[in-house]
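Long-time lurker. I teach an intro course on protein structure, and each term I like to show students one example going from raw sequence to a predicted 3D structure in token notation. This year I'd like something fresh instead of my usual example. Would anyone be willing to generate the tokens for the chain below so I can use it in lecture? Attribution to the forum is fine with me.
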Amino acid sequence: MFSGKSTDVDIYFRRIGVEDVPKNDREEIAEFVMQQFRGKDDLLDYHTTHQQFPGEAFPLPRRKVSLIMFYVWSLVTVTPGVAFLVNLIRNECYNMLLLLAIISIIGGFVSHKIISAASVKKNQKEKGI
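-- Reply from a regular --
Happy to contribute to a lecture. Here you go:
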């Protein structure tokens, strides 16, 4: 997402009626839950093979309001930081600028390490690691 690549997300929804859920017998409840997990595993296997879930897909349209709100909030959150940096440059606070640059570099490095440590390689996922 942060590297500029688009990401597709597939979500499968299925409603289970309250009347279909067993209520009293613990063995029936356990079997029902196991049946749901088996169905989920079958869906994931299908998705892995066909790159989509079975049935009709309903792509969500992109709304212009979301794009506008993204730009508005970006402007609201970035403007104070830019004003702060401009004031530091105007007032010739080069020590503070250097400190901010060092903190930014360290923060970027730490963030990169955390994200790379949390990522899962495809071949590791397939091997069950």
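Some talking points for your students: The chain has a mean pLDDT of 85. The CA atoms of residues 33 and 119 lie 30 Å apart.
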